Amino acid sequence: MEANGNESLVNPNLSQSQEREFIRRHHQHELLQNQCSSTLVQHINAPVHIVWSLVRRFDQPQKYKPFISRCVVKGNMEIGTVREVDVKSGLPATRSTERLELLDDNEHILSIRIVGGDHRLKNYSSIISLHPETIGGGGGGGRTTGGTLVIESFVVDVPEGNTKDETCYFVEALIKCNLKSLADISERLAVQDTTTESETD
């Protein structure tokens, strides 16, 4: 498991055992012999509702995913809806076809599966879940704010000619960029939200 982001700001009340429980509950993948899987964690200094407003947009992943230039959805945002994604230059792909597997607004869970495209990510599926946590405070008595623990996991076939480590490293690098961008945008929106609230008080 990889841990990224504002880890030092996170209240220790959300323990690693709780993270492991979230992973056990929401991020179980059936792994075949020729597949690899990994789980990444990002702590974001923004409340869940702001982060989820970005993550849940299956129809607009480019809102926070920097490698996506365009998305066209075929369907009505129901389970089974398919999106055609155009990938920016610089990656070994130009397009990806992805299907919505789960969109749970109560538990804040999104799952997708890649079903086509000119890339090597065969039988790729991912799950992303959001969990509220407290940011700041600690022993210094500082102000605490609502934060979000983001957990993203994936499973994918290992392409012929590559190792499991190489495949996981490549996918993890993409997800880390996405999660870093998600954190930056969410935290910027949270600051704007707080500023707006202060102005209306």
Beta-strand segment tally: 8
How are the strands of the biggest sheet laid out side by side? 1-2-8-7-6-5-4-3
* Coarse shape: globular
> H/E order of the elements?
EHEHEEEEEEH
Tell me the β content.
35-45%
Protein structure class? alpha+beta
Q: Determine the fraction of residues in helical runs and give it as a percent range.
A: 25-40%
Largest sheet: 8 strands, mixed
**Rg on CA atoms, Å:** 17 Å
Low-confidence stretches: 1-13
Provide mean pLDDT, rounded. 86
Q: Can you count the helices?
A: 3
Report, as a whole number of angstroms, the end-to-end distance.
42 Å
Describe this structure in words.
The chain has 201 residues and is of the alpha+beta class. It has three helices and eight strands. It has helices at 16-26, 48-55, 164-200; strands at 2-5, 35-44, 68-74, 82-87, 95-104, 109-117, 125-136, 144-157. An eight-stranded mixed β-sheet has the order 1-2-8-7-6-5-4-3. A hairpin with a 7-residue loop joins strand 7 (125-136) and strand 8. Helix 2 crosses helix 3 (164-200).
Could you give a short description of this structure?
Helices cover 28% and strands 36% of the residues. The chain contains three helices and eight strands; from the N terminus they run E-H-E-H-E-E-E-E-E-E-H.
Topology:
Blueprint lengths: L1 E4 L10 H11 L8 E10 L3 H8 L12 E7 L7 E6 L7 E10 L4 E9 L7 E12 L7 E14 L6 H37 L1
Parallel strand pairs: 1-2
Antiparallel strand pairs: 2-8, 3-4, 4-5, 5-6, 6-7, 7-8
Helix pairs in contact: 2-3
Organism: Camelina sativa (False flax)
Family: Belongs to the PYR/PYL/RCAR abscisic acid intracellular receptor family.
Pfam families: Polyketide_cyc2 (PF10604)
